[in-house]
Amino acid sequence: MIAGTMIQVLHPAVPASDRFSMSRVFPTTGFRQARRVDWRRWRRGAGAGLCLALLVLVVLGCDRGSDPAPPTVEHADVAGPAVSSKAILLESVSDGGHYRIRARPAAMPLKLNRVHDWIIGIERLEGWSEIPTAIRFDGGMPSHGHGFVTRPRVTKNLGGGEFLVEGVKFHMPGEWVLVITVTSKTTTESVTLPLTIAP
Q: Would you state the CATH architecture of domain 82-197?
């Protein structure tokens, strides 16, 4: 191959009828550059290809016009089956022994892949006078090594030692834990509440 063209050595014994037409001799090499173009076949092939391409475009255009637009994430119902229809109340004493902490969903039933709220209650145990100054809500699946796919946060003091947590989402079934951390003037204590999310 030279500069993208086909080069053929034409032996004298090859009949002239078998040689390529439209050939010219390279004066410095003795080779002949041969190009044979069957314009009638090319025109038929190009015409058929153009018709096929137009037909595909027309069919695709018709199909696109008849199908409804896919739903956006905001409007698609991505919630899974109900996790539980029974009341859930998780409770434990903090690791420092100064608070009793409770956690429950704000509404039932829980569903997979749906963002929902929780309510946590914090009770000071006898003899402890410090009021919590900061509360953090976290959690995840220790066996899978990941936390929530959302960022839950405490957003409101509901009064009576209860607080609203927004942005909780269980995106898969399995063994979960809720980790609630309470900070006061002189101490930071936490509690880990296990929760099993059934498939």
A: Sandwich (2.60)
Contact between 73 and 48 under an 8 Å Cβ cutoff? The reply is: no
Q: Specify the residue for token string 């979960």.
A: 176
CA distance 101 to 125: 10
Arithmetic mean of pLDDT over the chain? 74
Beta strand ranges found along the chain (DSSP E) = 7-8, 24-25, 32-33, 82-84, 90-93, 99-105, 110-111, 116-124, 134-141, 146-147, 153-159, 162-168, 174-183, 188-197
What residue ranges of the chain are covered by domains with CATH 2.60.40.1930?
A: 82-197
Of how many residues is the chain composed?
199
How many C-beta atoms lie closer than 10 Å to residue 93's C-beta?
14
pLDDT in tens, 78-109: 334 445 557 889 999 999 999 999 999 999 88
Q: How far is CA 186 from CA 108, 132, 174, 175, 189, in A?
A: 37, 10, 36, 33, 10
